[in-house]
Amino acid sequence: GTGVRSDYLYQPETIPMYYEAGTQNIPGIFSLYQGVKYIMETGIDHIRESKEEIVQQIRYHLSRNDRVNLFPSITCKFKPTLFCFTIQDMESEDIGYILENNFDIIVRSGLHCAPLIHQNIGTFPFGSVRVSPSHFTTKNEINIFTDAINQTLQMVEK
Fold first, then answer.
1. Separation CA 148–CA 2 (nearest Å)
2. What region does 127 belong to: left with phi over 0, alpha with psi -120 to 50, or beta?
3. DSSP 13
4. Does the pLDDT value for residue 4 go beyond 70?
5. Exposed end of the chain (fewer CB within 10 Å): N or C?
């Protein structure tokens, strides 16, 4: 439809009907406004620092197991707001499958549209598991994730 005549298959050519393209995306406009407002009130630096801290907590926990490889490594001076990992003797898609089906945790597994990077870091052809926590990720959610990884590692050891 055109906003004026739902049976029209084309946009009317005369003004003012020409400008009546249908209902504006009011929920989208309002959501964008609220998102920008939140960022402005909270501060982008605070949001970034919060994500860095959440990621560092998860990465620290994972780094304690020799079978887990982190990208970037735990010794990297750069503080990422997302990261990837692999588990020795497991394909990334299997890790993602286990996390989703056993723990209701969604991660991104594979080459992440970057096969050359994975060739460079030695994770080709299976890629890695990307973890992208949010500024809103809670301590409880961090614990749930790290416990899920521990249980996944135990499953593989058996």
1. 50
2. left
3. -
4. no
5. C
Give 31's pLDDT tier (boundaries 50, 70, 90): very high
The mean per-residue pLDDT over the stretch 120-135 comes to 95
Confidence band, pLDDT 50/70/90 cuts, at residue 5: low
d(CA 103, CA 153): 14
Q: How far is CA 5 from CA 30, 38, 75, 134, in A?
A: 26, 38, 63, 43
Contact 128, 85 (CB under 8 A): yes
Is pLDDT larger for residue 104 or for residue 21? Answer: 104
User: Which has the closest alpha carbon to 140: 148, 132, 151, 128?
Assistant: 148
**Contact between residue 155 and residue 72 where contact means Cβ atoms under 8 Å apart:** no
Q: ∠ CA 142-94-111 to the nearest 5 degrees?
A: 85
Respond yes or no on whether the N-terminal peptide bond of residue 125 is cis (omega within 30° of 0).
yes
Grade residue 1 by pLDDT with cuts at 50, 70 and 90.
very low
CB–CB of 117/110 below 8 Å? no
